[in-house]
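User: structure tokens for this one?
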Amino acid sequence: MTESLLKEYLDEAQLEQWHQLVDPAAHIVLTGHAGPDGDALGAALAMYHYLKMLGKDVRVVMPNLYPDFLAWLPEANRIILAHARPDEAQALMQEADLVFCLDYNAPNRLEEAAPLLLQSPARRIMIDHHLKPERFCQLAISDARASSTCEIVFSLLWQLGAFSQLGREAATCLYCGMMTDTGAFTYNSSNPALYFMIAQLLLKGVDKDRIYRRVYHNYSEKRMRLMGYLLYEKMEYLGHRRAAIITLTRDEMTRFAFRKGDAEGFVNLPLEIKGTRLSVSLREDTEKALIRVSLRSTDTFPCNRMAEKYFNGGGHLNASGGSLQMSMEEAVKLTRRAIDDFAEMLLGHPVAPVQHNE
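Assistant:
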């Protein structure tokens, strides 16, 4: 049967542990990583709908603001932002008897909000798809082969027999998370089970075309001009390495009236150049003295290995990230070194070593 494609994440002992944690919980808080994306929000809001269906008192607490193009998600207006309402967020975390850690594998992914989690007396359940999860939860449901955390949440709800009871709102949240974490199903999305899930979500009344427009066709004129500026003025194309680097500074963000989420998808654009296997985006953080690094690759090039070695990060084979505490000029030099170091893998043949004298 088609349902056999779905993975059952809970064995008998874990299923019992799930019920021991969830069933008696009166006050539940759902959390996602800092800079929440479509997958973090989608997973949290889908779980919100499920737990509300069980009659639970449920709140969603995110460390900071999510992109404007995700504000339409059902119940997104109920999300409490810890950086904007710290006292309320802290009170909720202290009152909670169960916290879900969704789409992150370590407390430091919450950044400044990490103490809220670590100081909470609540027990914890992790649901995540990133590599190398840390052990900070009583129950960890982790699968780095899953394309998104929403994919795992779908399978869990299916295994629990709850999916049939969910409505279009929860299904919309799950679909949005799956779509955004695969670049609209253009990478990390070859598992046949994913398309069975999509079919089931469509049967719930999900309007996939409208979701796509709301996410990818929902930007300002300034953002469009910023994209053109970055491609024409700021993209460094390294054809001899089949790679590209894009940089974005705070001054440039101010010039183009940058809003949270405006840089979404920019790192993917150089991959449209024939033969390009790697794209690296370097963006100055708007609040901290550091550089946000995003990496995207095609085929089998492991941008997660590059992220771990050079950018204090990690992630998936074709989509990874990290950060650097240095100037933009230094970050660009380091990125060039990283690309030269991985040149043999990028080109598919041995490359003479490069000397860097700067």
